[in-house]
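Subject: for your reference before the review

Hello V.,

The reviewers asked for a structural picture of the protein, and I figured it would be easier to keep everything in one thread rather than splitting it across files. Below is the amino acid sequence we used in the manuscript, unchanged from the supplementary table.
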Amino acid sequence: MENHNVAYNFFRTTELFSDNDALFYTNKFSLSKSLSFGELAKIANTYIRDFRKNGVKRGDKVLFMLRYSPEFICSVFAIFAIGAVPVLIDPGMGLSRLLHCISHTSPKAMIGIPIVHWIRLFKKSYFRSLNLSFSTRGFIPPFLNIISIPAPDEIIKDEKSFGDEVEFMEDTDLAAIVFTTGSTGPAKGVEYTHGIFNTQLNMIKRYYDAGPHHKDMPCFPLFAMFSICLGMPCVIPDIDPSRPAKANPQKIAETIIKHNVTFSFASPTLWQNLADYCIKNKIKLDSLKKILMAGAPVPAKLHRELKEIISEDAETLVPYGATEALPIANFTGSEMLLETADLTRRAKGYCVGYPFEECEIRIIKPETGKINDISETKQLKTYEIGEIIVKGPVVTKAYYGLQDATEFAKIADKKKGQLWHRMGDMGYFDEKGRLWFCGRKNHIVNTKNGIIYPAAMEAPFNIAIGRRTAIVGYSKNGEEIAILVVEGKYSPNELKEIREKALKIAEELNIDLRFSQIQIMKKFPVDIRHNAKISREKIREYISKINMNF
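And here is what came back from the structure prediction:
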């Protein structure tokens, strides 16, 4: 029988490319280091035996609080190999939400950097379930009973075969709990199976040509794990993955040039900062062949600017999906610039491309409550805007410990024994079978003059004004009105000009917008992971607080 444990893929790849460079990184002394695939396997094997020896067993939930490092990659695969379940939470979501997620999952063990163990000392109630704690280098008081895991440099040569180290897992067995960032609602733990991870690996290889012929710079730790499994050498960039907007574009450019990076996935914000820097300093990133970006709508401007700094045969790509279902569609920057950018400028939404063969996507009439079976839905026609749902092998089946949220997000197909996921997005299909994104369902502004889809209708305002805008709903006398908020700080004359431009666009789009309904906010609140998704909920709170007479 086939072993579906995703760690099996890791060890098979590391054995195949044993002597090849696998990982390039900077250690704590700011020295450039590298590890081969074979060395990664030896480190992972050492961690497997250390974790097992200290009591980590199949099915145990293991909280990860490590920096983006070789230790993170190797210890995750070690936990997979044991059949235990990594709990992966973005620490950038904020301490209170982080602690809530930890308490909710009740992990048995934790692998963390020293500071996390100090936090645990003062927040004991959130860590009650822990009876095993491991740490990387750093001072830990002895009374905390922390088990140190060796650094890569400390691990001795290990000749032991990997074959009997990897626990046998079915494709339906729980592999990991990956938390959403909570950028559009409370953070939820998404249950990933080994089968889903392996399907994602195959799709990344098939659709993005990922493999040993590329050198990757993944700006999210989880994607480094995929790359290693595909035999693709990885460069760990000098960034905080939870704060991509703060990444130094000069360092990123230097890393790409130094290592001849050909493949990279990062947030649109990071790519925009890098494009601005390279254009200003006349720097070309000729080695790059594939640039992937996701997490928020990508404007044509960014595709255009990136194409100025990469070679003619390179391509920008935008996968579409969510933590609960990824990837489900893809679009290229070339096709966007040639065919769809003008439609986006005219408030038709953002084209997110063609669904992958493995996935079936439908547009259904929106419903506010739970949908028990797919037979209860109404499938909409071409160009009709509705709720996006998807089924396929990358669709997760549940949120950990959240039955109500699971029942709301999933739609059963009882006849076929399948499950659909509600993306929470609004969109439509065009005549070519391409999927278009019009915004989040809970961001719709339902005015007396019609429905406004903010993500779609903001585009012409952004272009005309030259700044980011956000359309949010505001309740007035029992009716919802649209408020246009413009990011920045302006003089009275500039503000007058902005409002005049906005009113002209609103008239063209038939949006009921008055002078007083155009407001200014110095800095938009954005999501943590990508620094690109605008937090409309926080903007709405801001509008309510200023108490204007609209």
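For the response letter, the relevant points are probably these. The mean pLDDT is 92. Residues 349-440 form a domain with the Luciferase; domain 3 fold (CATH 2.30.38.10).

Happy to draft the paragraph if you're swamped.

O.
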